[in-house]
């Protein structure tokens, strides 16, 4: 089964209708859901998205979007080893390090984000939604 790990930024693009980014991630999600590809996130993605939407919009919208998101994604586990790796990693941003090591520990090879520069220390294939769609179009 194919799995794709999604960073919070691309999911916020979808949930907050952020143009011009929303269309690419919407296409990825639609394709994944129709093909049986599993879309995965870390637990902190869920909490961060909830917090951001609640601050930008309101609690009711945050609750609705969180429930919508949880129908689309599988939440991977973060354990002590992931936190230790992230704490001792060369990543500049701790949250990005946690996302990266969560994806690695869960067996992912691809992480989709718009902030590819934040993952230059990663061993994963780090792609923007546009790059991912182009890659999938060539397979």
Topology:
Layout: E1 3-6, H1 8-15, H2 22-35, E2 38-41, H3 43-56, H4 59-72, E3 73-75, H5 80-87, H6 94-105, E4 110-112, E5 125-127, H7 129-137
Parallel strand pairs: 1-2, 1-4, 2-3, 4-5
Helix pairs in contact: 1-2, 2-7, 3-4, 5-6
Which radius of gyration do the C-alpha atoms yield?
14 Å
Question: What overall form do the CA principal axes indicate?
Answer: globular
CATH architecture term? 3-Layer(aba) Sandwich
- Structural class of the secondary structure composition? alpha/beta
Number of helices: 7
What would the average pLDDT be, to the nearest integer?
Answer: 94
Fourth-tier CATH superfamily name? 5'-nuclease
CATH class: Alpha Beta
How would you write the strand order of the largest sheet?
A: 3-2-1-4-5
Which consecutive residue ranges, at least 5 long each, have pLDDT under 50? none
Order of helices and strands: EHHEHHEHHEEH
Give the tally of β-strands.
5
Task: Tell me the major beta sheet.
Answer: 5 strands, parallel
Q: How many domain units?
A: 1
CATH topology descriptor = Rossmann fold
Q: How far apart lie the N and C ends?
A: 16 Å
Which percent band covers the strand fraction?
5-15%
Helix percentage: 55-70%
Description:
With about 140 residues, the protein is of the alpha/beta class. It has one domain: Rossmann fold (3-Layer(aba) Sandwich), CATH 3.40.50. It has a five-stranded parallel β-sheet with strand order 3-2-1-4-5, sandwiched between helices. Helix 1 packs across helix 2.
